[in-house]
Specification:
380 residues; mainly alpha; Formate dehydrogenase/DMSO reductase fold; two-stranded antiparallel sheet; binds protoporphyrin IX containing FE
């Protein structure tokens, strides 16, 4: 079967905005999604683990992560809608067949997210003493494990989107009387497992950065001993995430996408971006190591900015790779466009407004905790 025969026809409507703008907004929206998603992806399971096994400061680190989860999840899910919108605007010929083949797992994301979100709330309420420990702990574990399962479904969807050669095989294996059952998973694609674990490695590093930012800016109620512990914890966690990033990143790129590196080196822009992506965890890691003895607000904020740089570089590289993988099937950049200016302006205004409100809310939270910190110093 010629894989091209399975690709749906091009939409006669055309893109609503230039392709380059779709790419920028998709990558930027995805970077915002990842920055938040990482904290619940790795953070929820860590918080659940520390709730069960941790003592003293270790347990407290878990509580601090859990305290942020309801807010972080709400922001990250909203940011996720942005890349989802642009994937559907430009990659629909690949996105829809892939997610129809795996329709049930894909649809399950909706229910799984509700379940995990509730679990994260239960855990938080347990810390506040408002639900019984068994319910809170169960909620924490459900949240941690379900989020990892959701990440697996996303890794499936995104890898299946470009695995056009595998579609027919998957369809014949999972169809009944010519109709897809929607039960396919992309296991025949060797990149699935390293891709899934690779993002979890990035999530470990982002969670480490969150811990130091929380210690430096939002732990006014804790003592110096906790803040020093959180600084060391965050450096160790980042180191684990870094090794994970290198291990699974190498497996993913060199083991399953061996043509990616030479192709990137042949492209004048990617020749810079690709190697930068590979070394990008170096800077935030150094900034955390410098805070081994004592978290510093300046260095913690810089680590946050450097981590966003890592995430954005990674988003640009994977966007480039997605386009390279789809290049044999479609020239996405050269499709017709019918500019819909009014819709675009409304989108941009609402997007900017949404980001400003999110920023304002974060600033308020930091301010409240800073007040607590100052107030406490005053008292003692
Ligand atoms: C709440 C649990 C969620 C988790 C654990 C999660 C995790 C992930 C992961 C691991 C990826 C990368 C997959 C890969 O390429 O290998 C991803 C991508 C993505 N996520 Fe999320 N996500 C969650 C929720 C959401 C929600 C609710 C939305 C939409 C509203 C969303 C939108 C997206 C989109 C669009 C991508 C692909 C972006 C692109 O390739 O440009 N996610 N997510």
């Amino acid at each position: 079967m010629d894989p091209n025969a399975l690709i749906p026809p091009e939409s006669p409507i055309g893109y609503p905005m230039p392709f380059w703008l779709i790419e920028i907004l998709k990558v930027f929206g995805f970077s915002l999604h990842v920055m938040m998603m990482n904290i619940w992806y790795a953070g929820a399971i860590l918080a659940a683990g520390f709730g069960l096994l941790g003592r003293g400061n270790a347990r407290l680190v878990g509580h601090h992560i859990a305290r942020a989860l309801p807010f972080v999840i709400a922001l990250g899910i909203n940011f996720g809608i942005v890349p989802l919108l642009f994937i559907q605007a430009a990659y629909y010929q690949f996105f829809y067949p892939a997610t129809i083949l795996m329709a049930w797992p894909w649809f399950a994301v909706f229910w799984l997210v509700i379940m995990a979100y509730t679990g994260a709330y239960l855990y938080r309420l347990m810390i506040l003493g408002k639900v019984k420990p068994w319910a809170g702990k169960a909620g924490g574990w459900i949240a941690g494990l379900v989020f990892i399962a959701v990440g697996f479904i996303f890794a499936n969807a995104m890898s299946l989107l470009t695995h056009v050669d595998g579609w027919w095989n998957l369809f014949t294996r999972t169809s009944v009387a010519g109709a897809s059952t929607g039960l396919a998973l992309n296991f025949s694609d060797a990149s699935l497992i390293p891709r899934w674990f690779f993002m979890f490695g990035i999530a470990l590093t982002t969670t480490a950065v969150f811990v130091i930012i929380d210690a430096a800016f939002m732990s006014g109620r804790e003592n110096e001993d906790y803040r020093r512990y959180a600084g060391r914890f965050s450096a160790v966690l980042y180191t684990v995430g870094l090794l994970w990033f290198v291990g699974f990143g190498s497996w993913y790129i060199f083991g399953t996408r061996s043509e990616a590196f030479p192709t990137a080196l042949a492209d004048p822009v990617m020749r810079i971006i690709f190697p930068l992506t590979a070394i990008s965890p170096g800077l935030p890691w150094l900034l955390l190591v410098f805070q081994w003895k004592q978290p510093s607000r300046k260095l913690a904020a810089l680590a946050g900015v450097a981590q966003f740089g890592l995430i954005t570089l990674n988003a640009v590289s994977r966007q480039w790779l997605q386009n390279v993988e789809l290049a044999p099937y479609a020239n996405l950049a050269s499709k017709p466009m019918d500019l819909q200016l009014s819709a675009l302006i409304i989108f941009l205004l609402l997007f900017a407004g949404g980001i400003s409100i999110a920023w304002w809310m974060i600033a308020k939270i930091v301010h409240v905790h800073r007040q607590e910190f100052v107030g406490k110093k005053h008292h003692s």
